[in-house]
Amino acid sequence: MRRRSFLTRTGAGLAGLTALSGCTGDGGDGTESASTESATDTESVTDEGTTTGTVEELSGTLSVATYSSFVGEDTAGNWLKSEFESEHPDVTVEFETPENGLNRYIQRKSEGAPIDADLFVGLNTGELVRADEQLDETLFATASDRIEGADTVKPELQFDPDGRVVPYDTGYISLVYDEGEVDAPGTFDALLEPAYEDALIAQNAQQSDPGRAFLLWTIYNKDPDGYLDYWEGLVDNGVTILSDWEPAYNAYSDEEAPMVVSYSTDQVFYHGEGVDMSRHQIGFLNDQGYANPEGMAQFADSDDAELARAFASFALTAPAQREIATRNVQFPAVEGVDPGGDFGEYALEPPEPVTFTYDELSDNVSGWIDEWARQIASN
Amino acid sequence: MTTPGVEIEGLTVGYDDVTALDDVSLSVTDGEFFTLVGPSGCGKTTTLRSIAGLESPDRGTVSIGGRGVTGEPPEDRETGIVFQNYALFPHMSVRENVAYGLQFRDSPARDDDERVTELLELVEVADLADRDPDQLSGGQQQRVALARALAPEPAVLLLDEPLSALDAQLRQRLRVQIKRIQSELGITTVYVTHDQAEALAISDRVAVMREGRVEQVATPETVYREPATRFVAEFVGDNNVFDGVVAPDGMRATVGDAAIALPADSDRDRGESVAVAVRPEAITVGRDGSDTAATERTVFLRATVETVEFLGDAYRVHCEWQGRTLVVKTDADEPPAGEVALRVDPADVRAL
Amino acid sequence: MDARVDRLALPVGVIATLATLLVVFYYPVGSVLVGAVRAGGQLSLVPLRAVLGDPFYADLFGFTAYQALLSTVASVLVGLPGAYLLARFEFPGRRFLRSVTILPFVLPSIMVAVGFLAMFGRTGLFNDLLAVVGLGPVELTFTLEIIVLAHAFYNAPLVTRLVTAAWESVDARRVETARTLGASPLVAFRDVVAPQLLPALLTAAVLTFLFTFMSFPIVLALGGLEFATVEVWLFARVRDLALTEAATLGAIETALSLGLIYVYLRFEAMQLRAGGGSRSIGREPLLAGWRSLLDPRRLALLCYGGVVLVLFVGPLASLVVESVTTPEGQFTTDYYAFLLAQQASAATGTVQPVPAITNSLLFAAGALVLALPMGVVVSVVAARETRGSRVAEALLTAPLAVSGIVLGLGMLRTLVFGTELFGHRLTVTGPVAIVAAHAVAGYPFVTRTVTPALRAIDDRLVDAARSLGASRTTALLDVELPLIAAALVAGAAFAVAISIGEFDTTVLLAEGVDSATMPVALERYTGNRSLGPNLGPATAMGTVLLAVTTVSFVVIDRVGGRWER
Question: Which residues of A touch C225 (CB under 8 A)?
């Protein structure tokens, strides 16, 4: 395996504690064993996945809560729906895409309002931390040990120590840059140099996933004590912080700046004839990329938990994983799945994926982001 | 006349801290032409609006045609109102304006057209029926406003300074017309004006108001000849009013160095302050005291002519007498000039 | 109409208006703001003290006021010459121009932001133009300047509209009197016209300050985090579910805004009413032969025309151009083909453009039908000018003063999640709720245009009608409303504009994509990456929105124009 994962888990057990080892680099053994184990599991699941699911006949309506770009024409959501429904003719899958995402359900739970959805698709570590901080009762059921195929997910992507959330894909935050304008910065410190003055567009960590991931990445490298000073330097060097990924990427497309915080899958969108690939170079700072796995979890209040788990299982089958990866332009979460095609060719993985664990984030992430935002806004 | 027209009892209206009407009671008999007159701010318009239901009084009651209407909204009171600025609906034709009130009566619609035509004829603007109000002169607009107010056959017609915006000639013509129409229809009418001459000319009875109170209610003749208060004396018609003191004999008032005889029926204590009023037309201009008809109580005042106004049928002469201005009206052929002797007969003197 | 029904109409209207406000405004907003004075379930000043004592928030409010002030100055500078042009000159298309000054109001900020970036971006049209004359390039994106410009885009037309109306109501005879007394045209303007324009100008300025103080999407889209305003921060706090802090910020912001509304109402009441028989100042022809172009005033207006082209036409034209241009600068119809594909798509979660247009128009019509009577009822109450009526009016105008985010959060918690009432959980969502919310957002604009017009009507017209037997309601319908038709049409246009442009509450209250409107579709398409991450589909939808809205305004203007006598 060419790729080496620096994200490890201390054990293969699903409820096992995650630990970050990328910075120390001494977790090699665990990594190897975990990935090989999972790889074999994947094979068995993919062989049986589509057939074993139909043994007991499922029926009813499944309500899946997700973000709006997950559904619609040609999306992963719609593929999952139609495939799942054709496998289970008595099942109807419906999507709920509230504007404020997971917050909608956190608020519903805390207000005592009923939650109609069965499954949430598309939450990350930070959001899970927020949900747990906000609520006394758990929003999600501990179900991953009952979700078939959950144990085939790459252990390094597992981010819920309580086994509620099952990752289904991941992205790696990196820089996208125009090599005609700037050289690859290479390191975080390089971004402070005059060569990169007014060169970077990032996103607001308060409301943007890649923005938050990039901030966490800087904290990962500069420590909780040093990241604010680092950002002071970035601001002095003219970093622009826009509200979200779309405006940031559009600004980059309009040549407002030669670098933007984005995903390492950028070239999947941009390749082929007539595309100037020099504008779509991927920069892994310090040879890292910050992993931002997306997971799904069954609502504790779901009245059709079995159906929800069946759908989650289905999303972890090899064909589903390939479709999710290609249509969502994110890496598959299940070990050993190769999406192939353009994705396989153009999606780049960082030499060293890094991320904070759930435990590292809880009690810290709000404070980190708040301090950071106050510093930026005070400028 | 026993049928009641409009009865007002103890009406009090206040705006913020100002009392606009203070315990006003009035009784207008059926078919009467009743005028509220007084300077601006005296409460006459407020009284009228209270009758119409356009003001909500703090206290007091209003009844129209024997029916208590206190607290009823304006649309239920069966009044017709005409304002100084006509208040014609600018987006409706003359005909539509006049017809407007008819829709709220229980009557067959086909009668309405006739009724409108009849009214427009009554006020002599039938040929303007299809015009818009802004195409009419002020006088024409006022006639239309009158027709509109009369159309639904109100129990009482309320006129709020209807002629004030018109020029003098038109004003006189229209007021005769209003009077004629009123007596033809026999409709109870309450008329508000600040013009005392208009009030005297047009009314069956007049209420003189001042600062939210009624000073006097009487026929125009009585108000003119026997004003109840000094205010009425000064406000209604031209008048010469002087402050004096009752002389030791109790029969005269000392004003300056003159002793003006008081009317026989005035019962005043000596030394008491008294206001003495003499109408300009009651004063005769002479050269000296050689008049034959003079009695011993006739007074001659030596005055100097200052300004003379020619009125056509008479001269109005402003004289200076002991630092006071005296107005005299004389039908002499020539305007008086220089020193004159002004003769005042005791019968013409009012003590207030 | 039955007499009793008729008599009840107005009080019932007031009660219905208050009830609607209570359900879709006061209750939701109150449920959030109460958090500002509560800690641990008890009444407390702790949250307020925490915010007021934090120097960061002092700076935040300071910066917010500063950018609002700059925006107000810019809006007045851009808006005033427009009023001069529209009030004093006659030229072909003047009426049309006047009626489209409302257009910026309707444009969703997402779209305006796209247009501004396309126009003023580093590679935008503006820099291309500057390059032609050998200037530039200027860097405007993500600066305070572009935020201020975008605020001027939204609010300068407001200044123009209000001042034009005041200018048209100046009685020409007063100017003529001043001239015969020896005043030069300039002095006559200063002494006679200007004092009458000032209240309108102040009204517009206070309103602009209010809107830009609470500005959110524009600041978010065109500025970086460095330019965060109170509202942007409030949004972030809500996202982070720091609701007490959000409530406190919202409460302080609302208190300040209500104060501004009160000031605004004072200025509005100061505006002189055109008395009966007043004659407006005549208009000069803008162009009377080529020689007239040498007139310095006309030259200045020509330059102003250039500014208008760049600031107003530029972004909108850029938007249209973007909708047919690939990122590489080639002509394309892909984005419109995308719209057609969305329309043809049967996939769940797809927002189809045609239903979005239909929904937008239906909701706008519904909101209009509701907002017009609501606005008129409030105006009738406000025009009475009784004691305390201005305070009441300020409270009834509160939808202008409350942050959209606070309202959204409140609606979410009370209407969408539902409220326990007599053991049942009542939820208020779907098209009816959307229409009600749009009406509540739009009626203050109806009131703002109708109240001054209503006040200008001679009370005695109503008195006359009533003594003729018309009830208050009948008098309103028969006499007052026909006389203020122009103001009603203007109010109607505002209500429609607000409804068509509304995004936040629509998205909250919509149940799925069936109730999606044009701005919702536009927003969805910005997130659609099927043609790669670019704004093409959104700009195509934006162009459709622009076209539909322009047509609606022309229709309102025509229909309304026929109704006016």
Answer: 204, 206, 241-243, 373, 376-377
Q: C residues 60-89 near A, CB within 8 Å?
A: 60
Number of structural domains, chain C?
1
CB spacing of C470 vs B89 below 8 angstroms: no
Of all residues in chain C, what percent are helix, strand and coil, respectively (each to 5)? Answer: 75, 5, 20
B219 shares a domain with B253: no
Partner C, chain A 222-261, Cβ-Cβ below 8 Å: 235, 240-243, 246-247, 249-251, 253-256
Q: Could A71 and C347 be called an inter-chain contact, meaning their C-beta atoms sit closer than 8 Å?
A: yes
pLDDT tens-digit series, residues B88-102: 998 899 999 999 988
Binding-face residues of C in 139-158 toward A, CB within 8 A: 141-142
**Per-residue pLDDT, A376:** 93
C449 assigned to some structural domain = yes
Nearest C-alpha of chain B: how many angstroms from C265?
21
From CA A190, how far away is CA B274, in angstroms rounded?
107
Give the number of beta-carbon pairs within 8 Å between A and C. Answer: 135
pLDDT above 60 for B208:
yes
C-alpha distance across the termini of chain B, in Å = 32
Structure tokens at A127: 């959001």
pLDDT more than 70, % of chain C: 93
- Burial degree of B139 (CB within 10 A; 0-12, 13-18, 19+): buried
Q: Residue B152: which of C463, C469, C565 has the nearest Cβ? A: C469
Within this chain, do residues B185 and B75 fall inside the same structural domain, yes or no? yes
**What pLDDT sits at residue C145?**
93
**Domain identity same for B206 and B340:** no
The CATH number given to whatever domain includes residue B250 is: 2.40.50.140
Q: Could you tell me which chain C residue has the CA closest to the CA of A204? A: C225
3-class state of residue B157 by DSSP: strand
Where does the pLDDT of residue A46 fall: very low under 50, low under 70, confident under 90, or very high at 90 and above? very low
Report how far residue A192's alpha carbon sits from residue A222's, in angstroms, rounded to the nearest whole number. Answer: 13
Check which CATH number belongs to the domain holding B207 and give it: 3.40.50.300
Judge A/B contact: 3 or more CB pairs < 8 A. no
Domain annotation for chain A: domains and CATH numbers: 8-171+292-356 (3.40.190.10), 173-290+368-377 (3.40.190.10)
ipTM of the prediction: 0.84
How confident is the model over B220-262, as pLDDT tens digits?
999 999 899 999 999 998 899 988 888 887 788 888 878 888 8
Rounded Cα distance between C440 and C434, Å, is: 10
pLDDT value for A48: 39
Look at C241 and A130 and tell me if their CB atoms are within 8 Å.
yes
The average pLDDT across C414-426 equals 81
pLDDT-based confidence at residue A34 (cuts at 50, 70, 90): very low
Look up the CATH number of the domain holding residue C402: 1.10.3720.10
Q: CA-to-CA distance for A255 and A251, rounded, in angstroms? A: 6
- Averaged pLDDT, C204-216: 91
Question: Do B61 and B78 belong to one domain?
Answer: yes
B299-314 per-position pLDDT tens digit: 888 899 999 999 888 9
Q: Is B31 in the same domain as B179?
A: yes
Judging by DSSP bridges, how do beta strands B33-37 and B205-210 pair with one another? parallel
User: Do the strands B283-286 and B339-344 form a parallel or antiparallel pair, or are they unpaired?
Assistant: antiparallel
Give C-chain residues touching B105 at CB under 8 angstroms: 469
Same domain, residue pair B166 and B243: no
B169/chain C closest Cα distance in angstroms: 23
Chain B residues touching residue C472 (CB < 8 angstroms): 73
**Interface C:A, ≥3 CB–CB pairs < 8 Å:** yes
Torsion angle of C-alpha atoms A108, A112, A116, A121, degrees rounded to 10: 40
By residue count, chain A amounts to: 379
Tens digit of each residue's pLDDT (9 = 90 or more) over C43-75: 888 888 888 889 999 999 999 999 999 999 999
Domain membership flag for residue C433: yes
Identify from C384, C467, C474 which residue to disrupt to test chain B contact, counting B C-beta atoms within 10 A and taking the largest count.
C467
Cβ atoms of C121 and A256 within 8 Å: the answer is yes
Banded pLDDT at C386 (limits 50, 70, 90): low
Residue B109 is predicted with a pLDDT of 62
Q: Identify from B75, B105, B135, B160 which residue to disrupt to test chain C contact, counting C C-beta atoms within 10 A and taking the largest count.
A: B75
